[in-house]
Amino acid sequence: MRHFGHIAPEVRQRLFHLEPCEFTADSSARLLAVALGATLYSPATRPRLADDIVKQTGRGVVSMVLCLEDSIGDEEVADAEENLVRQFKDLAGRDGMDLPLLFIRVRTPEQIPDLVERLGAAARLLSGFVMPKFTEERGIPFLEALASAETSSGRRLFAMPVLESPELLYRESRVETLEGISRAVDKYRERVLALRLGVTDFCSSYGLRRAPDMTAYDVQVVASVIADVVNMMGRADGTGFTVTGPVWEYFRVQERMFKPQLRRSPFLEGKAEELREALIEHAMDGLLREITLDQANGLQGKTCIHPSHVLPVHALSVVSHEEYSDAQDILRSERGGGGVLRSAYTNKMNEVKPHRAWAERTLLRAEVFGVANEDIGFVELLAAGIPD
Fold this sequence. Notes:
Elements: H1 9-15, E1 16-18, H2 29-35, E2 38-43, H3 49-57, E3 63-67, H4 77-92, E4 101-105, H5 111-119, E5 126-131, H6 136-153, E6 158-163, H7 166-169, H8 171-187, E7 195-197, H9 199-204, H10 220-233, E8 243-248, H11 272-281, H12 284-296, E9 302-304, H13 310-315, H14 321-334, E10 340-342, E11 349-351, H15 356-369, E12 371-372, H16 378-385
Parallel strand pairs: 2-3, 2-9, 3-4, 4-5, 5-6, 6-7, 7-8, 8-9
Antiparallel strand pairs: 1-12, 10-11
Helix pairs in contact: 5-6, 6-8, 8-10, 14-15
């Protein structure tokens, strides 16, 4: 699989200076953590789930979570498990088909080995499990169950803990909770692919819900948690983990209170103005702003609950030609001892040693999402990726 693999090769050649790489479920954890991109959630109760997965793969989705937790009712769990096993076996019987990275979001640790056993040979399609409301106390049993299932199945399985518990949100218990989470995931580091943020649960603790005109970073109680999670869990010194962006809840907006945030200038040519209007109509300008703020705050990828959110996440994950040029220059000069140099675009200072970690992260993102040609921006990437 590859990002933007759903568009024609000749279109990719026009868009990309460096095309996205190909990867598989067996690629390195370091690469897959970035390649997750927009992770699309789907309730495990969907009767045509196998067909849905195939359909979304054809639209550019490369990672999905099939949910047995909050997206379904308590009384639906048993039927959802049966459906999930049936749909996986359906997919396993379809030969020669590219599928996304597939994860199951469970409720209890006991579900992990049980589902792997029930999946049988179809477990080869499974990349891992999403673990809700993760703390040290609640999380260790999930990780132990994952390790056991991995051993019994002979299949590498990844964990994606969701950081969403009230203990993490409340100021008086936050540091202690984060320290406990750090101990738990560090012990199972090779199995933890990424940490996911459960911002909806954070908001619920205070009876809050952000409007489509606002991002998670406008809700200060939430922004403070994101900052502390990145501070303690997302460091670039080798101790950190990939932390993914929070979910965007909106598909459309009926009535706007604030002026649209999506500026006009990138949309002035051709039919791009129509795309701008469509993005605004569907509340995508707020999503685009939140994705940009995710990236500025050290988050990679995003939890998505609607297919229309996937392409904007991926388009804004593509490395610009300018970023790529700066990153290459920094790492080349770093090998020569450091110093300060002027950007090849002559618009900024590149200080070699302080910018080294940024450059390394940027080149990894470039490998996964590609590097845009000099005259290509996110609007062109968006327009090219939208299905006809």
